[in-house]
Amino acid sequence: MPGAGKTAIGRRLAARLGLPFRDADAEIESAAGMPITEIFSRYGEPHFRDGERRVISRLLAGPPVVLATGGGAFADAATRAAIKRSGAVTIWLHCELPTLLRRVAGREHRPMFLNADPAEVLQRLMTARHPFYAEADVTVHCTDESPETTTRRVQDAVDEAVRPQRLPVGLGDRAYEVVIGAGLLARAGGLIAPVLPARRVVIISDAAVAPLHLPALRAGLLGADFRVVAEITVPPGESSKDFSRLQEVLEGMLAAGLDRRTAVVALGGGVVGDLAGFAAAVAMRGVPFVQVPTTLLAQVDSSVGGKTGVNLRAGKNLAGAFHQPRIVLADTDTLGTLPPRELRAGYAEVAKHGLLQGPLWDWCETHGADAVAGDRAALTHAVLESCRLKAAVVAADEREESAEGGRALLNLGHTFGHALEAEAGFDGTLLHGEGVAVGLGLAASLSARLGHCSQEWPSRVIAHLAAVGLPARIGDLPRRFTVDALMGRMAKDKKNRDGRMRFVLMRAPGDVFTTGDVPAEAVTALLRDEGALG
Description:
Its cofactor is Mg(2+); Co(2+); Zn(2+); NAD(+). Helix content is about 50%, strand content about 15%. The chain is α/β, with parallel strands linked by helices.
């Protein structure tokens, strides 16, 4: 903003960093041979913004510099996009109105203040520009302190800033990014605004997550001038993924004034993401959708790929839709609030991705215990590598239509796991990740029995899952299951073809495949040997 000190701070910061300082306005005037005010009066603002964008892009394409842009430059969408593409770190010097008023005193001769109340001019500019400034990578709140003090704080903020990782999910005109890092809730508005048609959202969360993370998300949205149309919470747990709850959510969204430009933001774990995503898919035949996963399971798996849905009595996720999010914000700070059991359950999906990918499995065996213990670096790595794998698989086979392999490989352990979950009644006694962990052990054992891998391999998989505190055998679970009931559940699995059960089996880490050529008697014998009754 005028008076924020862009030039004064920029020059000092450049000196500290040993870099050249450039002022975009000065560069424009030099190139045009006339003052900016004259460019505006002669050719109009669109002509000026186009030239400004070219000058800024040229400067950022060269050697490193500290660049002060004009106050209106970052409010221009095309210029913001060009700056983002360049990889530059953007810094917003955020000043309150009284500070700016004191600093612009005596500048009444400047065109924007001519014959106008400076307070009204500044307030109008703040209202128009601050929502766009909120997209900056770093925000430094400035006061009436000395320029040297502000410069030191700016340098400290830049040095301490860890830019989030961005993973693209390549789906053509529906491509989006998975953004992974700390502190993303506080910046949510600036991060999601570029990919949404309007700054209007409905937030859907659950009663356990909302008290922990909704205030930070709300503040992050309001800081970028978003309007939160409604905040809808559902009970935590798998039981919320049903049609009656879906109808309640839809009625609440529509009663609040949802329109086709209003985005649905899912704040929570896999249940909230699946439910909110399905609501976004069917409300008005589809509205924009944003995933803000707060559990490890959701961050590494369910938030990426666009699968949404609810459960039926016959099984898990049997009603749903593919509805890709516009962006996924995986704030790793939220993982610090997870109960240990939830963290372990989420890690089961990391282990699954390790088995699919290969080198990640080696990492799991070495660092998995650190991840389930809450180590921040280990968790960030687990989320990043899991999302990298899943993004590539989804881009290659979005709707799981590949004849063999493809996205179906992500169901490793899930045929067994979903049957266990459904038979448990989704009552919370068996978490999804716990079912997947048992399913991974069963899939490894079935692979060995059918001669696809070494006989030692299942014990290695089971040993690792047990070492991190996960159940890996049916007998490890707190309730009993019958062979007939589990076989009946698996017979209704949505991955089956022509009435034949399909499984994902493995030869080694990184070498997995899908098959329908599995004798039913081999599966029943395995279930019985691993602790199922009958």
